[in-house]
């Protein structure tokens, strides 16, 4: 039986500006999304009946609360077919960590089933379904680097950093709720950033590695969890050109001038057992499905 293997990459936010709150309850944002080489792996195969989702972690629900399950259900509805599929999800991306793991898994499910079922839907059709699942999901079907605005669903592909940037991800082992991060945001304090163009800023950042990045969601989160500020400072002391919380956190990342410096920094941070650390690089292409008999 043919199986599709999908690698679902994590993302980091190379800066995030909150412009204000929208009438629909969402926040108007600008951010640059960048895929990095930390992956969940999905093995997708035709099943006998219904959606059977299994995982190597007990930290995830395996029913309709899971974005992978909902993505399979949504694509089956679009195709007018029974959702008979077996999916095994091997997690490497920390859960609720600001790295987009759930969204990436959902996008990988859409792309993988599109191939397994021989639907040949164009990427734009998949992205239309993806936005129904979550604001970050369409990004993982578009480009390794993209400028996002609106609720995060309005995407413009960008040229990936050349050469790739070396990044150390540091996860403190606890979760931060995205709704809490936005609700805790003091919009009055972000007014100083309203004149910044995140798109122009990001392009400048790629051309000059020594760039100061800002994330409007950091203020309240770093105040509530001081260890995140300590991690940022440690990354800078270990040679990072910049450090930032990714998305709504709590993962913090540092961008380094080369692989050697990044690897040395990670080695130091690994001594703190409460921290999960990852040495990754920025991607210059979206992972594609691979088949196995």
Task: Give a brief description.
The chain is an alpha+beta fold and 293 residues long.
CATH architecture of the largest domain: 2-Layer Sandwich
- How far apart lie the N and C ends? 6 Å
Helix content: 25-40%
Rg over CA atoms: 19 Å
Characteristic terms for this protein:
293 residues, 4-stranded antiparallel β-sheet, single chain, alpha+beta, globular, Ribosomal Protein S5, domain 2, 7-stranded mixed β-sheet, Alpha-Beta Plaits, 2 domains, 11 strands
Give your account of this protein's structure.
- With 293 residues, the protein is α+β, with helices and mostly antiparallel strands.
- It folds into 2 domains: 3-157, Ribosomal Protein S5, domain 2, CATH 3.30.230.10; 166-281, Alpha-Beta Plaits (2-Layer Sandwich).
- Helices cover 29% and strands 29% of the residues.
- The chain has helices spanning 67-79, 101-116, 123-133, 178-183, 198-207, 218-224, 226-237, 259-269; strands at 3-21, 27-46, 51-55, 85-90, 145-150, 154-157, 166-171, 242-245, 252-256, 276-281, 290-292.
- Strands 1, 2, 3, 4, 5, 6 and 11 form a 7-stranded mixed β-sheet that branches.
- Strand 5 (145-150) and strand 6 (154-157) form a beta hairpin.
- Helix 1 runs parallel beside helix 2 (101-116), helix 1 packs across helix 3 and helix 6 (218-224) crosses helix 7.
- It is globular.
- The mean pLDDT is 89.
